[in-house]
């Protein structure tokens, strides 16, 4: 059985940092979330984003209730890396430096003094670091010369672009120990008691969680619907392949008041965006959901 996926909670928001876990959530559990991290050389754009993945509160609650994931307190989940982990990090930086050297030689036909250390220098540095009893933070900072800009023989800076191969798997979690005692919570209630989570805390939020769970169990993919005047976008399949069919709004109960102008607004907005608006309500007594679709129709 696969270990629960750690949901890193900071400021009452759930994040997923491991790319393998992100792929598992999407393919096995139909949970998409929203990527929010910037990518190298694309720091000012907002179309193609990277880790971390931010989950809606309903998504996080659903995963924890299904025992697919656990909450991890971000404030208590970080520990000082061991000597072996630091040495592994230094080795990875050396490998990147070697890739940069090879790329520069292929592009320019000559080496780049002052930018990447030679193999002999790298070997000597490894020997020095292995001889130390304990690696300190200074040993990590000592790798900075491998990341400085390329300097030519005349002392001017040259701008070059190289493609590096960096593993995108789970090595980033070597320094994060989510199974450590005191920072993992396998239920929503235990996370609430620890003060790191507070959703759901009202009748409306409980209705949202119930409706989200019901739609998810019916096989739909769920995304945020704020841009279309609702709480959710409801997709028949993966959003990478399908457009959403419904914009869903959650009512507190079957008896909630709904103004006529709201019905008109939902119908017109849904039709303008080629979607059907879905009014959703949850009955705690009968433990079931009720749905009413609104579509704008022509007259005459």
TrEMBL record:
Tell me which residues make up the tRNA intron endonuclease catalytic domain.
Answer: 207-284
Q: Which residues form the active site?
A: 235, 243, 275
Give the Pfam families listed for this entry: tRNA_int_endo, TSEN34_N
Q: Which SUPFAM superfamilies match?
A: tRNA-intron endonuclease catalytic domain-like
The organism's place on the tree of life at top rank: Eukaryota
The answer on whether this UniProt entry bears the keyword DNA repair reads no
Record-level GO BP terms: tRNA-type intron splice site recognition and cleavage
Q: Extract one GO cellular component term from the record.
A: tRNA-intron endonuclease complex
EC identifiers of the protein: 4.6.1.16
- InterPro entries named in the record: tRNA_endonuc-like_dom_sf, tRNA_intron_Endo_cat-like_sf, tRNA_intron_Endonuc_cat-like, tRNA_splic, TSEN34, TSEN34_N
This protein's record includes keyword 4Fe-4S: no
Alphabetical UniProt keywords: Lyase, tRNA processing
Task: Please state every residue range assigned to the domain named TSEN34 N-terminal.
Answer: 5-74
Alphabetized GO MF terms = nucleic acid binding; tRNA-intron lyase activity
Q: Which family does it belong to?
A: Belongs to the tRNA-intron endonuclease family.
**What task does this protein carry out?**
Constitutes one of the two catalytic subunit of the tRNA-splicing endonuclease complex, a complex responsible for identification and cleavage of the splice sites in pre-tRNA. It cleaves pre-tRNA at the 5'- and 3'-splice sites to release the intron. The products are an intron and two tRNA half-molecules bearing 2',3'-cyclic phosphate and 5'-OH termini. There are no conserved sequences at the splice sites, but the intron is invariably located at the same site in the gene, placing the splice sites an invariant distance from the constant structural features of the tRNA body.
What this protein is called in its record is tRNA-splicing endonuclease subunit Sen34
* Source organism (scientific name): Amanita muscaria (strain Koide BX008)
């Amino acid at each position: 059985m696969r270990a629960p996926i750690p949901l890193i909670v900071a400021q009452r928001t759930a994040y997923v940092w491991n790319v393998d876990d992100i792929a598992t959530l999407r393919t096995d559990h139909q949970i998409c979330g929203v990527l929010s991290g910037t990518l190298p050389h694309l720091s000012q754009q907002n179309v193609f984003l990277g880790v971390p993945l931010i989950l809606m509160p309903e998504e996080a609650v659903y995963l924890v209730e299904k025992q697919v994931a656990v909450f991890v307190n971000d404030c208590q989940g970080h520990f000082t890396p061991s000597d072996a982990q630091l040495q592994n990090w230094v080795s990875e930086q050396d490998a990147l430096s070697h890739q940069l050297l090879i790329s520069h030689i292929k592009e320019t036909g000559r080496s780049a003094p002052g930018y990447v250390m030679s193999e002999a220098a790298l070997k000597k540095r490894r020997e020095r670091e292995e001889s130390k009893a304990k690696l300190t933070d200074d040993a990590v900072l000592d790798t900075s010369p491998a990341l400085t800009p390329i300097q030519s023989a005349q002392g001017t800076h040259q701008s070059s672009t190289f493609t590096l191969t960096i593993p995108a798997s789970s090595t980033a979690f070597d320094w994060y120990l989510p199974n450590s005692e005191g920072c993992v919570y396998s239920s929503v209630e235990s996370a609430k008691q620890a003060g790191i989570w507070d959703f759901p805390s009202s009748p409306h939020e409980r209705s949202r969680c119930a409706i989200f769970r019901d739609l998810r169990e019916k096989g739909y993919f769920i995304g945020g619907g704020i841009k279309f005047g609702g709480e959710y976008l409801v997709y028949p399949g993966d959003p990478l392949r399908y457009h959403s069919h419904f914009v869903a709004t959650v009512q507190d109960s079957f008896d909630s008041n709904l103004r006529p102008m709201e019905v008109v607004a939902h119908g017109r907005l849904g039709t303008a965006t080629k979607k059907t608006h879905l009014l959703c309500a949850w009955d705690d007594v009968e433990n079931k959901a009720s749905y009413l679709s609104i579509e704008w129709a022509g007259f005459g």
